[in-house]
Amino acid sequence: MKCDRGGKFANGELQRFGNIELSPSAGVLNYGQGLFEGLKAYRKEDGNILLFRPEENALRMRMGAERMCMPAPTVEQFVEAVKATVLANKRWIPPTGKGSLYIRPLLMGTGAVLGLAPAPEYTFLIYVSPVGNYFKEGVAPISLVVEHELHRATPGGTGGVKTIGNYAAVLKAQSVAKAQGYSDVLYLDCVHKKYLEEVSSCNVFVAKGNVISTPAIKGTILPGITRKSIIDVARGQGFQVEERLVAVDELLEADEVFCTGTAVVISPVGSITYRGTRVPYVEGGFGPVAQQLYSTLTRLQMGLIEDKMSWTVELR
Ligand code: PMP
């Protein structure tokens, strides 16, 4: 889908997956003017397909586009394009419980710019790929390391939108952590260097007794759609959920820590290392809180329980 100079996208068309042509001076290549989204399609037991809250991804892309000085497809255009792409690729969607189809919408400045400025033209495209588990541990606990020098976002920056540069900012810390045997990095705020932010590609929750806490959305962390859904599910199940500043010291007292995101769904955290001290949580499996929430969310996404919130969109 391309956008004209009036900022409106014309409806697009399906094309075979392949390379795209780009000017060397495209805005996205030179000034990082790009946004992406991630969502999944699941196969129901009756063979139909379920999307999970696609309009939330459309709204988040529109919010990001505003920050990045880009026009964006309407919510309806976005959702219709996702549906058409998924239906055209439905043979790639694994059976219920065996994985999903990951959907990657991408919005970028493809017009040429030399001096720093928003690009004069934009492209919106979607590609898909069947996926299994995100971490090599599968749904087994992951190990995180707290990063206290490198930051992924600054107040007033772009950490709260899903722009490509945020991911460039985490590559260094994530590669070092992986080389040291950790699954991923847990970032701290860059002002006080003591409040939890998020992991490279997922949000973080800390459970203690009946209280589940998660860093509040304040512009430096991504407002995850799984995060938002888990907050509602947990409240519905009687947990007290607090969105607030969560100090790194609270990790020492927590019963369970888990991460949420489209790719990771819910990943239990087995241990967190902070300034050389390893804090262990659940060994080998899920803690009871993460297990309960994982079970509800995944059954909802696969159509195995009633969708009382109307979060899923069914395609056949
Ligand atoms: N934080 C970051 C930095 C992410 O990349 C993602 C993945 N989109 C998330 C959190 C989780 O967001 P969501 O639940 O919408 O996938």
From TrEMBL:
Residue positions, PTM N6-(pyridoxal phosphate)lysine: K162
EC number annotated for this UniProt entry: 2.6.1.42
Presence of keyword Signal: no
The protein's required cofactors: pyridoxal 5'-phosphate
A single GO cellular-component term on record: chloroplast
Keyword Cytoplasm: no
Reactions catalysed, as given in the entry: L-leucine + 2-oxoglutarate = 4-methyl-2-oxopentanoate + L-glutamate; L-isoleucine + 2-oxoglutarate = (S)-3-methyl-2-oxopentanoate + L-glutamate; L-valine + 2-oxoglutarate = 3-methyl-2-oxobutanoate + L-glutamate
Gene Ontology molecular functions: branched-chain-amino-acid transaminase activity
Keywords: Amino-acid biosynthesis, Aminotransferase, Branched-chain amino acid biosynthesis, Pyridoxal phosphate, Transferase
GO biological process: amino acid biosynthetic process; branched-chain amino acid biosynthetic process
Family: Belongs to the class-IV pyridoxal-phosphate-dependent aminotransferase family.
Protein name (record): Branched-chain-amino-acid aminotransferase
Record gene name: LOC116208100
